[in-house]
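Why predict the complex rather than its parts? Because the way molecules touch one another can change local conformation, and only a joint prediction can capture that. The input here totals 878 residues.
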Amino acid sequence: MSKPLKQIHLAAHFPGVNNTTVWSDPEAGSHIEFSSFAHFARTAERAKFDFLFLAEGLRLREQGGKIYDLDVVGRPDTFAILTALAAVTDRLGLTGTINSTFNEPYEVARQFASLDHLSDGRAAWNVVTSWDAFTGENFRRGGFLPQGERYSRAKEFLATANELFDSWRGDEIVADQQAGTFLRDARAGAFVHKGQHFEIEGQFNVPRSPQGRPVIFQAGDSDDGREFAAAGADAIFSRYSTLKEGQAFYTDVKGRLARYGRTHDQLLILPAATFVLGDTDAEARELAREVRRQQVSGATAIKHLEFVWNRDLSAYDPDGPLPDIDPDLGEHTIARGRAQVRMYRDPLATAREWRERAAANNWSIRDLVIETGSRQSFVGSPATVAETIDSFVQADASDGFILVPHITPGGLDAFADTVVPLLQERGVFRTEYEGTTLRDHLGLAHPDADAPGERVAS
Amino acid sequence: MASTPPSSLPSSSPSASSTPSSSALHLAVALDGAGWHPAAWREPVARPRELLTAGYWAGLVTEAERGLLDFVTIEDGLGLQSSHFTEPDGRTDQVRGRLDAVLIAARVAPLTRHIGLVPTVVATHTEPFHISKAIATLDYVSTGRAGLRVQVSARQNEAAHFGRRTFPRFDIEDLDTPAVREVTTDLFDEAADYVEAVRRLWDSWEDDAEIRDVATGRFIDRDKLHYIDFEGRHFSVKGPSITPRPPQGQPVVSALAHQSTPFQLVGRSADIGYVTPHDLDQARAIVDEIRAAQTAAGRAGDTLHIFADLLVFLDDDPGTAAARRERLDSLAGHPYTGDARVFTGTPAQLADLLLELRQAGLSGFRLRPAVVGHDLPQITRGLVPELQRRDAFRRAYEADTLRGLLGLTRPANRYAAATV
Ligand SMILES: Cc1cc2nc3c(=O)[nH]c(=O)nc-3n(C[C@H](O)[C@H](O)[C@H](O)COP(=O)(O)O)c2cc1C
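Output of the joint prediction:
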């Protein structure tokens, strides 16, 4: 035998505010009612997934100075929804995206520690830094943080939160009713943090949670982001779900670990991935084309083009040719609060290339966006998809995937029923949860276990 | 529909009366750790090692729902519990450490069906934007049973946990000094701003904003989403919320109030005020003051419930209740005193007292169980049947939402009214 098979990690991203969620399909249900979240979480747990994942955006996106109205809009509060989901699941990990720019460490640490208690050890935090002052207009501090300082604050934010998580040892609640001793030590939870971004001290008021600390995710792609992940995250939510890009990212990030005294298996790489399943590969490809047309309406195609052109293109016909004017390279951006703004680093070159490709293929604006826009990662029969996912993981393009179905809430059902059993047959995915906490599912050490004496008194 | 000016608070039908004589009482229970007596955790019935588990809270709220109570409140704070007014007390003989109240409420919501869930929220150090969507989400996960209890904090240690502001050290006796009054007035003004921002965010989506119009490709009608443009002294919020308008439109806002400054907050901003009268005359005076504040705030036509808080030791025999209180006091090392009146006696005696006090114009009571494991079942299985026998309490839940239980109609959206 060659090297042993890697076990695949799978997670479910609730499809919500993004340009891949199809809301026009008759099967598309509510993206906000709790019943949708409960259905989605139960499917993920039935399929023995590692965790459920929620993204976050703290301001509604705008384009051309108006609220963007073509994609799904509206999402719940991350902490409240994940904690409610803990009531309808037993084992599924619960991962929430919470930004470090428009929050305070004491409050966020308290919420994650509470979630970890109330879910018996299933909490994870995807630390993001968020975009800009635009988002800050919803918060007390306003848009106070320059771009370059976001990771410096994120780093200190996470370090501070960890100090708070560690401020209770785990054996401090004695609760001796006879002796009348509740706390072993009156200074339980004491902390002092004096840094560049936070000068805080006092006592944390949530005793140590089942996982000690929530599992830490990072999502962000710059060099700063990668270093941040290598230094302190347990997992990365990345965007590279093709084989070559995935392998390059994997090698790069895992290569940074040694610098921080960490080993290869202490950081999992879990890219976002979409999928379309059919009975046969051909049927799946046909279905995928339909899904793309649902994702990219004529109006959406124009808006997508505006990201690159950075001007109002509403006068153009989506079924007509591309604009022959050039992108506006001015300071302002037509779209605010969207990832796509940063996707095209050289708008002039992109516009030229797109015009050439459209002309060569006789594509309309909408055709072009459908052809060049982000695509489904895995398209095929269940057997093909299972095989592809497995081969990607074995080839170190990732340690697993965070799957984003394009329909809520039933978009995961077919995957759970058809692909998961095939992965289990291949011996690369669990048939039962081996442990109870998210750390158990991910094969990550419990911080408690690292430090003898930090065990919960029994 | 009734037209509501954009800046005003949500209105509700005046016929949903707050004058109690003809209608049934409303009953809530205030949950806090093992109970409100500091030695509660030492009673055999207490489960002090389980205070941080979901099962513990689910058990309590389910019990309260069995008793058909209107809602539970869940206490909270951004520092360790303390017997001192503004600082930690360093004690190790009382319950210390607690979970986030909003999250406890969210955790029990899917396990219950009728009872209202009202967590405490500290306005002083948190973000109205975050809290607005958290309570809206609680409303979604409970399908219309969410509220919040807004609280301010002048504690120095809690301020140091955030590192953004400082407060002077003071004792409860200093509350009436000009310096402290200035601090509290400012905190309550900020809390009123906070509630206003939160309420505007709940209204920042009109109910029918989601249109899913395939023909035009539009998921929402953006003209039905509104910037709230709140500008206050301590913060500003642009909006709209990221969370659509919650099922109740406006979840129920409540606040505990002991004095004039907080009475103003209740009059201006709340749907329910909790007050702490010690007898009927005091209750009358407090109700008058809050009604005056309500009128001054231009809300005379709105339903504003005033609940009296009572801490209760309940037993089938009055002597047993008194003996229990003494036993707990001696374990604690001193007699229990607090802001609210302490009642010791039987469920029937408590029913007598509640029916007497309601004459002051109270619409209900928030009972604080001295020992939650003991006094909560006494409320649900003793007091409630007693009140039912007297036709003073519901025999079945008559509504599925908290507003419904409280006789509050679903408010019109201030922005929708303004644009029509
Ligand atoms: C795959 C991926 C997912 C992300 N998800 C979110 C999100 O849900 N919410 C958010 O505010 N930012 C999100 N971000 C943004 C990052 O936190 C970060 O602000 C952004 O990527 C800029 O950092 P960078 O320059 O390191 O990429 C995401 C980024 C990536 C790459």
